[in-house]
Every structure is written in C-alpha cells, then in structure tokens.
C-alpha cells in the first residue's frame, strides 16, 4: 500500500481502440544512422574477453520471410517491407534462409542461392540481387542478418549433390530432417563452411548471420574462424546463435535467451506475463547459459523474443502490454516475427512447401507458413500506431533504453509500486536524472492507479520539484513537489510516464 501523497493529479490515458493520432507516425528519421565499419567501435567487456559492435545496443529486430512479404515473391520486391520496417523505427531484419530452391530450413548447402527468392538463375545475378537488397536496407539504416543452416542437407535432388561430391563431409542420415548431417569433425569441411560465411559477407555486404540450430551441431569453431577473418578484412559483423550459447566472443547474443534445449520449456515471450519482470532481470532467472560455471544473466545482451518462424501463433494479439511492457521498454533487444505489430491474422495455409507433403497437418504449421495480410495492417491501424509510438519513445530516449551494462543483472530497472498488488509489476527505466515509468493495467476493467515515484532508486531527490510527462500523448501533465500521482488506464492499457527534476531559481 502507498503512503499518503503530497500532490495528486489524474493522468488520462486514452483508450487505444478509439485513439486518433492524426497524422500517421513515421519513425524512420529516428532510426540510428548507420556508420561504415571503419567508424564502428568494438565495445569490450570489463574483463576484456568479449567485444561487440557498438550498434548492437540500438537493435530492434523483426524476422521476415521473403516470399511472405515481398510484392513479387523475390528479394527484388522487398521495398514495401523495408519501408514498413523503417516506418516502425526497427533497424534490423532477420531474413529466413535465401539458400537453394526448396524449404530454406531444409537446405541444399551454404554454397547455394535460391533462384526462386532472387528471381535469377545465374550466380552473378543472384549475388547482385542479394547485395542490392542489403544496399536498399542500409539506405534506410536497417541492418540485415541472413539465416544460415548448419545441421546438414536434405535428400532432395539439389541437396544430394554435395554428399555425392564430398561424402567425407557427411555423417548419418537424419530422418527427422530428411537429410544427411554434416560431419563437423572433418577439418576440411569446417574450413569450407567458414570460407562460405566470409564469401556471403564479401559478396553482399550483409551485417551478420542468424545461425540456425547453433551452438548445436557445428559448435563454435567455424563461426569463430569466419568472424576472425572478417574482422581482419575490416568487417564488424554480428553472429547470433539460435539456442542459448556460451557466447565465447563468437556469438554476440542468442535469438532465444529463454530457450532451453532439448526440452524447450518456453518458446515464445510470455515469461513476464506470468512472473515478476524486475525480479527476473535482477536474478537472471530463465536467462540460459551454456557455461556451467557461469551465472544466468551474466552476459551483456539478451533478446526478448515474442515470436519467430517456429512459433505456432502470434503472442501479442493486439496487446500493448505484451509488446511494450515485455519487449519494447524492458532491458532486452526486442525480437518478433513480422505481423505482431498490427495483429496479423494467424490463418495458416498450405503453401509452396506444404503442397509437397501428402499429409499436411496443423501441427506442422507455424508462422513460417502464415499469410502476411497487409490489408489487416490498415484494419488494425490504431494498434499499429500505438506500437510505433512506443518504439518512438524508445528511440527518443537512447540514454535510457540503449544502456546495457556488462552484466545484464545490473540493468537500469527498478520496481514501481502502485495501490494494485494484483496487477503486473510496474517498473522504471532510468539514467542521468530521468526515469520512465512503465505501468500496466492487465485487468479486464479500467482502473485508476496511485503510483509511487521511486525517487532514490532512480537517482532523484524526493525534495525536488518534478515534472511528469505522459509520453504516449506528449503532454506535460503535472509539475511540483509530489511523492506519487494517480493515473487512469483502460483495461489492458499501458501507461508510460517520464519523471524528471525541475530546476528552480
């Protein structure tokens, strides 16, 4: 319960279902400007064992499948998707595998490029399409990660060529993936794989890789070799593991920080809807590490993955709490599959790949095969504008939201107390004499909350006069000496308030 407060003011939060933003929000000008690699600073960890490009702390990542978002099914028709991503204020796209001509995760080998996704059959033209896509993304200050496969190759005609040419590079047949596993004990194969990664960067200018299944199958070796060579060539690339890794200055962070193989207790980002967000950050709970001697949460960067191509359904479903409270404002690198931001309908279909399956069943479907309905974005425009507004707040306060200490458990986050103990834990993100309070109303009814300002925990003096700004409505709503304030939030609403000292003379 809160103590009596000195100053009382009611802060209205509009009901997002009926909100009128006026002109649509465009965050493209707020996306951090990309620097050439020569100007990128490699930030070292305190113990000197790890170094990561300085732009990583600004990342918001959205996964895209080319033939689901492109206007023509190829990388040539990606302008609409890139413009959409830039409008959001997102600055990194993870592209599902542009390899071979089959299911990208089925894989024909890292030396192959998809003629279907590039729209070209000749190798030189395929490279040109890939490079042009990266160039177009970079013009919008959007980084690009290509997905690469390391389990093996499929038994299809295209995938069977390499095992015939280099049988020593392969091990047993793996029925689950309908193909042959790579033999990672073979030194020549490790060298070949690493050289292919270097070639992809040299030929396309891509910013890095999402490494499928890693650190399993391939381990760290080929990625470490490739990363070292790329650094020697001046490329400051990013390597992202799928599963929780030991990093080892090879993987800069993991796609699924809370994903524990092989039992996989948690796949999508719903942890903070069930447990106390601040307690979990401070303890490192569920932030998996692969080093048995390491404490959970000890790394600098962790993603908070709302969804990916493997997810069965979208998680957000139009909830500002699900996307804002958990990902956009929490001390993580936000990651989700395209469509979360406008509540894309989860209507599955039997696409190009599944038509080949004589017995397609719902359990085989995932967001990878989901229709991206661009018209639904217009139907759900209010929610999309709210998501953009939340991203805008994150972009306008990089000193707070792009602060990542060497140990994630030291993140600039603390609890905010209200008079509603039955609701999700409110929290503050703070730095340099400013605090942004994130206050959820996850109940099914509108609520008026009394919110205590955590002065000392965020570095403010309770004797000072403060100004409170409702950041979602861009309005200064109160100033003066106060210990707490009241706010009206709609059912399922999320309040976002800036608290800062007001200098008096």
The total of beta strands comes to 22
CATH superfamily of the largest domain: Glycosidases
Fraction of residues in β-strands: 15-25%
Structural class estimated from helices and strands? alpha/beta
Distance between the termini: 35 Å
Report what the structure shows.
This protein is an alpha/beta fold. The protein folds into 2 domains: 31-155 and 186-409, Glycosidases (TIM Barrel, Alpha-Beta Barrel); 412-501, Golgi alpha-mannosidase II (Immunoglobulin-like). It is built from 12 helices and 22 strands. The protein has helices spanning 66-69, 79-88, 115-118, 123-139, 157-165, 187-204, 221-232, 277-283, 320-328, 374-379, 381-396, 398-401, and strands spanning 10-12, 42-44, 51-53, 61-64, 92-95, 143-148, 152-154, 170-174, 179-182, 208-211, 238-241, 253-254, 303-305, 333-337, 413-416, 426-431, 434-440, 447-452, 466-470, 475-480, 484-489, 494-501. The strands form 5 sheets. An 8-stranded parallel β-sheet has the order 12-11-10-6-5-4-14-13. Strands 15-16-17-22-19-20 form a 6-stranded antiparallel β-sheet. Helix 6 crosses helix 7 and helix 9 runs parallel beside helix 11 (381-396). The two termini are 35 Å apart.
């Amino acid at each position: 319960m809160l103590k009596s407060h000195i100053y009382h003011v009611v802060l209205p939060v509009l009901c997002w279902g009926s909100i009128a933003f006026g002109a649509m929000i465009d965050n493209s000008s707020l996306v951090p400007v990309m620097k050439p690699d020569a100007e990128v600073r490699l930030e070292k960890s305190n113990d000197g064992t790890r170094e990561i490009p300085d732009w990583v702390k600004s990342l918001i990542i959205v996964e895209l499948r080319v033939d689901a978002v492109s206007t023509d099914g190829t990388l040539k028709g990606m302008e609409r998707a890139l413009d959409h991503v830039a409008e959001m204020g997102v600055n990194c796209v993870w592209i599902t595998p542009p390899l071979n001509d089959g299911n990208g995760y089925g894989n024909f080998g890292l030396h192959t490029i998809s003629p279907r996704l590039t729209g070209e059959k000749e190798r030189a033209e395929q490279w040109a399409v890939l490079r042009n896509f990266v160039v177009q993304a970079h013009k919008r200050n959007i980084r690009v990660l290509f997905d690469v496969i390391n389990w093996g190759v499929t038994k299809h005609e295209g995938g069977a060529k390499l095992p015939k040419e280099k049988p020593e590079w392969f091990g047993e047949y793996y029925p689950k993936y309908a193909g042959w596993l790579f033999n990672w004990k073979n030194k020549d194969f490790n060298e070949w794989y690493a050289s292919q990664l270097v070639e992809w960067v040299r030929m396309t200018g891509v910013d890095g890789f999402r490494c499928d299944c890693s650190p399993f199958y391939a381990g760290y070796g080929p990625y470490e070799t490739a990363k070292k060579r790329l650094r020697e060539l001046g490329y400051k690339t990013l390597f992202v593991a799928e599963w929780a890794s030991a990093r080892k200055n090879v993987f800069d962070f993991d796609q699924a920080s809370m994903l524990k193989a092989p039992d996989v207790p948690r796949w999508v980002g719903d942890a903070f809807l069930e447990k106390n967000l601040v307690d979990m950050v401070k303890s490192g709970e569920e932030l998996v590490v692969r080093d048995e001697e390491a404490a959970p949460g000890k790394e600098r960067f962790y993603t908070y993955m709302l969804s990916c191509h493997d997810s069965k359904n979208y998680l957000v479903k139009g909830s500002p709490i699900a996307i804002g409270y958990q990902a956009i404002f929490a001390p993580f690198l936000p990651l989700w599959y395209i469509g979360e931001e406008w509540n894309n309908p989860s209507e599955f279909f039997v696409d190009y790949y599944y038509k080949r399956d004589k017995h397609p069943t719902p359990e085989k479907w995932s967001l990878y095969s989901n229709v991206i309905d661009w018209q639904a974005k217009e139907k759900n425009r209010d929610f999309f504008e709210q998501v953009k507004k939340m991203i805008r707040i994150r972009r306008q306060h990089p000193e707070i939201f792009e602060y990542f200490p060497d140990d994630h458990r030291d993140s600039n986050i603390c609890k905010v107390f209200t008079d509603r103990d039955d609701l999700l834990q409110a929290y503050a993100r703070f730095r340099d004499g400013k605090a942004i309070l994130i206050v959820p109303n996850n109940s099914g009814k509108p609520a008026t909350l009394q919110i205590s300002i955590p002065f000392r925990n965020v570095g403010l003096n309770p004797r000072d006069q403060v100004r409170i700004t409702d950041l979602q409505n861009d309005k200064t709503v109160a100033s003066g000496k106060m210990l707490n304030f009241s706010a009206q939030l709609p059912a399922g609403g999320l309040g976002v308030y800036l608290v800062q000292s007001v200098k008096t003379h």
